[in-house]
Design brief:
77% helix, 6 helices, elongated, mainly alpha
C-alpha cells in the first residue's frame, strides 16, 4: 500500500500528465490554424504520450491498492506569437514535469517505498528524453530563423514522428 502523502502526490501527477496532454493538444490546434500540419502532428503525438504517462500512474496506483482520484484539468493557453515560442513553452513545461517527477522520487525514497522509486526512475529517464527532444526542435527553429523554406522542411520532418504506443511508452 502506498502511504497517504505519496498517494496524494501520485494522484496530483495524473492531473499534471493530463494537463500536459491538454496543453500539447492546444499547441497542435494552434499549429493546425497556421496550416503547419507536421508540427501539429508532432504535438498531437506528444499529447498522446502524456496520456499514456497518466495511464501508467493510474495503473500503478491501482496495482498498489490505492484509490485514483481524478481532478479538474485547467484550461491551457491557446495563442502564441511564434513557432519558437510554442516550443520554448513546451520545454519550460517539460522542465516543470521533471521537477515534479524528481519531487515524487525524493518523497518515495523518504518513505522507503522502493517500488515507487523504481517506477519513478523510469519517468526520470523519460524526462531526459522529453527535454532533449524539445531542445532539438528549438535548436532547429533557431537555425532556420525566418526562412519560410526552413519552416516548410521542419514541418515536413516533424510530421514523420511515429505515433507513440502504450507498449513503447510504458516498458520499464
Amino acid at each position: 500500500m502506498i502511504k497517504e502523502k505519496l498517494l496524494k502526490e501520485l494522484n496530483n501527477q495524473i492531473n499534471e500528465e493530463l494537463f500536459s496532454a491538454y496543453l500539447y493538444s492546444s499547441m497542435a490546434a494552434y499549429f493546425e490554424s497556421l496550416n503547419l500540419r507536421g508540427l501539429a502532428a508532432w504535438m498531437t503525438n506528444q499529447a498522446k504520450e502524456e496520456q499514456i504517462h497518466a495511464q501508467k500512474f493510474y495503473n500503478y496506483i491501482v496495482e498498489r491498492g490505492g484509490r485514483v482520484e481524478l481532478q479538474a484539468i485547467s484550461k491551457p493557453k491557446s495563442e502564441w506569437n511564434s513557432v519558437l515560442e510554442v516550443f520554448e513553452e513546451s520545454l519550460a513545461h517539460e522542465i516543470h514535469i521533471t521537477e515534479r517527477i524528481n519531487f515524487l522520487s525524493k518523497l518515495a525514497f523518504e518513505e522507503s517505498d522502493r517500488a515507487s522509486v523504481l517506477v519513478l526512475d523510469w519517468f526520470i529517464n523519460e524526462q531526459v528524453e522529453e527535454e532533449a527532444s524539445v531542445e532539438e526542435v528549438i535548436n532547429k527553429i533557431k537555425m532556420i530563423g525566418d526562412s519560410k523554406q526552413g519552416l516548410y522542411l521542419l514541418d515536413k520532418e516533424l510530421g514523420t514522428r511515429p505515433e507513440p504506443s502504450a507498449s513503447q511508452s510504458t516498458e520499464e
